[in-house]
C-alpha cells in the first residue's frame, strides 16, 4: 500500500493506480473511518500507531459516522460514493496483528465498500459529507 495526498477517482476505474476499481465497479472504492480503525485497535489493546494502510483501504476519513447500510451516499470533496456493502477484511489483517480480522467485523469497523457515482480529484482535508444514511444493518461475525 502506498499513502498519497491526492488521488484521482473515476466512475470507470475507481482510484487511479488501483487495479480493482475497473474490474469490480460495485466495490471500486473502500473507505475507512479513523475512529473505527482506532476502536478496533483498542479492543486488541494494540498500539494505536499501527498504520491505517494495514487495513488496505483506499480512503481514510475522520469526523463522520460512515453509513452502515447499503444505499448510503457520501461525498469526499467532489467525489460522490454509494455504499454497496461493508468491507470484509481479509486474512492479511491477522498477519499484521493477531485478532485484527475479528476486531474489524463488528459495527462496520472494516469500513465501507462503494460504487463511484461521480468522480474527481480528492486530497487530504477534503470535506466529507454524508448525504444518505439508511438505518443501520447489523452484520454477522463469520464463524
Please tell me about this protein's structure.
The protein is of the alpha+beta class. The chain has one domain: M1 Pyruvate Kinase, Domain 3 (Beta Barrel). 17% of the residues lie in helices and 30% in strands. The protein has 4 helices and 9 strands. The strands form 2 sheets. A 6-stranded mixed sheet has the order 4-3-7-6-5-9. The chain has a 3-stranded antiparallel sheet with strand order 2-1-8. The longest helix has 10 residues, at 34-43. The chain is globular. It starts with 5 loop residues before the first strand and ends in an 11-residue tail after the last strand.
Which segments are poorly predicted (pLDDT under 50) over 5 or more consecutive residues? none
Examine the secondary-structure arrangement and name the CATH architecture: Beta Barrel
Terminal CA distance reads 28 Å
The main sheet orders its strands as: 4-3-7-6-5-9
Total number of β-strand segments? 9
Task: Give helix and strand order, one letter per element, not per position.
Answer: EEHEHEEEHHEEE
